[in-house]
Design goal:
alpha+beta, BirA Bifunctional Protein, domain 2, Rossmann fold, 2 domains, 5-stranded mixed beta sheet, 16 helices, 38% helix, 21% strand, binds adenosine-5'-triphosphate, binds magnesium ion
Length: 420
C-alpha cells in the first residue's frame, strides 16, 4: 500500500523559489533603507519564555489568550514560539544591560507564530521585518521612523499604500477617554458582536477595529482618543504631524487604529493597501514607552514597527508579475563530445568567476542538453565542441533572438554584455 504523502501544518506555508526571490527583494529594500537610518540587524531567538509575552503583550489580547504556540518542554520550562518581535527585543535589550548605552536602533527579519484562522495573507507561521528603537524620546523620532517605513516601501515601488496614524494617549489621558468610550458602548451592547461584548470587559479600545461590519456601523459617532489627548500627548501628536509634513510623508489620521497589544501608547500607525482584502495591513507599529519598565528596566521611551513579508511579497507578485521571476540562469554550458567535458567544466567555472550565473548541462546527448538549457530559462547557451576547444573559442547562442556566433574566449564576456 502506498504511503500517504505528509502535508505541512495548516496555515503554514512553504516558501519556494519564486516567492523567496520576492521576499529577498523586500529584505534588500529593508536592509538598504534601514542602513541609511543607521539601524543595525539583530538576530533574536524564536523560543522565548511564555511569561515574557503574558507580561508584555497582555493576557486579554488575542495573541496571548488564544494564539500562542506555547508548550512545556521536557525540562518543565514554559516555552513559546514567539508571536511577535518587540517583547523579545526588549528582553534582549535588558538582558544585555544596554539601558545606559544610548539609543539602540535595531531591525530583524524572521518567523513569527500565531495560531490564527488561516486565510489569504493570514498564516500561522509568517515572517516579519521588524524595527525597534530604544531611547526614542520625542515626536522627531516618531516622524523619522515613519519616514523610514515610508522610504522602505517606496523603494519597492508598491502603489496604493496609505500611511494612517493615530494617538493612543497615555496613562494620564486614557482613563477619561475610557469612560467616554464605555458610556458610548454601553448604550449599544445589543448591537455589538459577542467578541466586542467580551472586549467591553477586557480591552474596550479593540472594539474600534472590529472587522464585523455590523459593529462598525455602531461606531459612527464613537468618541475618539485624538479628541481626548492631554497637553503632552497633544503636543507629541502635533510634533509628529508637522515632522511628517516637513519630510513630505503623506498620511491620514485614522482614529480607529488601536493596535492589538497592550503595551502601546501615543503614536500608533499602519500602512495599508486595499489590494489584499481584509488582510490589508502590511506594516504596523507604535510607541511603547512603558514596556521596558514593565519588564523590569528603567523608564525608556521606545518605538517600533513590523511589516509582514508574505503580504508584501504578494503585493509585489500582483504588481509586476513579469519582474517577479526573471530566470536566475544567465548561461547554460553545452559540451559536445566526451573529450571536451572537463574543459567545458573549467570554462563554466571561469564564467562563474567572471560573475555570471551558470549551469552546466551535464554533457552527453546534445539534444537533451539543449532541452535542459531551455528548461533552465538560460539567456545564453555556450556551446563547446572539439573545434572550439582547439581554437580557444565557443559558440554563443542568444536565446531571445536565436542568433549564434563564434566568439573567442577572451571576447566572450564583452559579447555577452553586448547582447544583454
Ligand atoms: P492584523 O490586523 O492583520 O491581524 P496585526 O495587528 O495582528 O495584523 P501585527 O501584530 O502588528 O499585526 O504585525 C505586523 C504585520 O505582520 C501585519 O501588519 C501583517 O503584515 C503581518 N502579520 C501579522 N499577523 C500575520 C499573520 N497571521 N499572517 C501573515 N502576516 C501577518
Ligand atoms: Mg492580528
Amino acid at each position: 500500500m502506498a504511503a500517504k504523502n505528509l502535508q505541512s501544518i495548516r496555515g503554514i506555508h512553504d516558501g519556494l523559489v519564486t516567492e523567496v526571490r520576492l521576499w529577498q527583494r523586500v529584505e534588500a529594500a529593508a536592509r538598504k533603507t534601514f542602513g541609511r537610518y543607521a539601524f543595525s540587524e539583530v538576530r533574536l531567538p524564536i523560543l522565548e519564555p511564555s511569561e515574557l509575552f503574558v507580561r508584555s503583550i497582555g493576557e486579554a489580547t488575542d495573541i496571548v489568550s488564544k494564539e500562542m504556540y506555547a508548550f512545556t518542554d521536557q525540562g518543565g520550562d514554559h516555552i513559546c514560539l514567539r508571536p511577535e518581535g518587540t517583547a523579545g527585543a526588549t528582553r534582549a535589550y535588558l538582558q544585555a544591560g544596554l539601558t545606559r548605552s544610548g539609543t539602540q536602533r535595531w531591525f530583524y527579519i524572521g518567523p513569527m507564530f500565531r495560531r490564527e484562522r488561516p486565510q489569504k495573507g493570514r498564516l500561522r507561521q509568517f515572517q516579519q521585518i521588524g524595527v525597534e528603537m530604544f531611547g526614542a524620546q520625542g515626536p522627531l523620532e516618531d516622524a523619522e521612523i515613519l519616514a523610514m517605513a515610508h522610504a522602505f516601501l517606496s523603494e519597492l515601488n508598491i502603489s496604493g499604500l496609505q500611511l494612517e496614524i493615530n494617538s493612543l494617549g497615555c496613562a494620564a489621558c486614557r482613563p477619561a477617554y475610557h469612560d467616554a468610550l464605555m458610556g458610548y458602548l454601553h448604550a449599544r451592547t445589543d448591537h455589538l458582536c459577542a467578541t466586542c461584548n467580551d472586549r467591553m470587559n477586557t480591552n474596550p479600545m479593540r472594539i474600534l477595529d472590529c472587522k464585523n461590519t455590523q459593529c462598525q456601523t455602531q461606531l459612527d459617532d464613537v468618541p475618539e482618543m485624538v479628541k481626548h489627548l492631554c497637553n503632552d500627548c497633544e503636543q507629541h501628536f502635533s510634533g509628529l504631524k508637522s515632522g511628517l509634513q516637513a519630510l513630505d510623508v503623506p498620511y491620514q489620521i485614522n482614529a480607529r487604529i488601536v493596535r492589538g497589544l497592550d503595551y502601546y501608547n501615543r503614536t500608533a500607525f499602519e500602512i495599508v493597501t486595499d489590494q489584499l482584502g481584509a488582510q490589508g495591513t502590511v506594516l504596523a507599529g507604535g510607541r511603547y514607552d512603558g514596556l521596558v519598565s514593565q519588564l523590569g528596566g528603567p523608564p525608556t521611551a521606545a518605538i517600533g514597527f513590523a511589516a509582514g513579508l508574505e503580504r508584501l511579497g504578494m503585493l509585489l507578485a500582483e504588481q509586476d508579475a513579469s519582474h517577479a521571476d526573471t530566470g536566475l540562469v544567465e548561461i547554460a554550458v553545452v559540451a559536445i563530445g566526451e573529450s571536451v567535458l572537463q574543459y567545458s567544466m573549467q570554462r563554466a567555472a571561469q564564467l562563474r568567476n567572471d560573475g555570471f550565473n551558470v549551469v552546466h548541462c551535464g554533457g552527453g546527448n546534445a539534444k537533451r542538453q539543449f532541452k535542459t538549457a531551455d528548461r533552465e530559462g538560460a539567456r545564453f547557451v555556450v556551446i563547446i565542441g572539439e573545434d572550439e576547444m582547439r581554437q580557444g573559442c565557443v559558440s554563443l547562442k542568444t536565446m531571445a533572438t536565436g542568433k549564434q556566433q563564434q566568439v573567442s574566449n577572451k571576447d566572450l564576456n564583452a559579447a555577452i554584455n553586448l547582447e544583454q
